[in-house]
Amino acid sequence: MNEKELRSSSGYALFGLGLLLMFGGVGLVAAGSALGGGLVFGIGFIILIGLTVINPNEAVVTTFFGDYMGTMKQSGLRWVNPLFGRKKISLRARNLNGQKLKVNDKLGNPIEIAAVVVWRVGDTAKASFEVDDYVKYVEIQSEAAVRHLAGVYAYDTMEDEDLQIQEVTLRDGSGKINEMLEAELTERLSRAGIDVLESRISHLAYAPEIAGAMLQRQQASAVVAARRQIVNGAVGMVDMALAMLSEKGIVQLDEERKAAMVSNLLVVLCGEKAATPILNAGTLYP
Length: 286
What we know:
transmembrane, 10 strands, Band_7, Band_7/SPFH_dom_sf, alpha+beta, three-stranded antiparallel beta sheet, membrane, SPFH domain-containing protein
């Protein structure tokens, strides 16, 4: 079932006509014409029943003995068949601040995750007749989409940092993850005529029972990465020093002296504290 537009008449003139007929009917009854007055009053009352106030960004879904007749979206005072059933639906954007969910990621680690979804009703017919309660439907399907997304991807990668191609993770691939969440929500909520305007992860953390252990792992990974960078830089500086000494002929070193020099330079460059050198005031060779 798809939405179709229902044209309605402006209700301002009919509002005045209905009031006039009702007051006229009361006057006729007072004048002694009960039947004529009652009929005129009833016509005016029926006209007023057909009036509906539609606010901006609001729609009215109409039915006639179970048949969908159309949706009115023109704002203002409108008039339709008084026998039509009417249901108002807001077309304004709404926020769904999802609650924190405790789920397992792809690697089986328990995590806490929550999402914020901005949505609005795009098809009033589907929202009214395809699901029982479209607001509850959005809440349940949003939670299901977040749970599914958390189970498909890992919170963080466990692979070697040197790998150039790494899998998208919940923590590092925030932009990509939000796009995937929005795409899945759009697919899930299209049945209810809901348009997803924006969706993003609002909370992401390890569950309390493993948060401490994961923090230690992250700290260890940071230390290892820093040490690796220091060693790479130190090796490059030692290689450059030996090459320059050899190229300029400043000093000739045998393999044993080169090994000693490399060892000393690496200790100086890789050490956490400043080295205290021992100066040799004699000759190079004993």
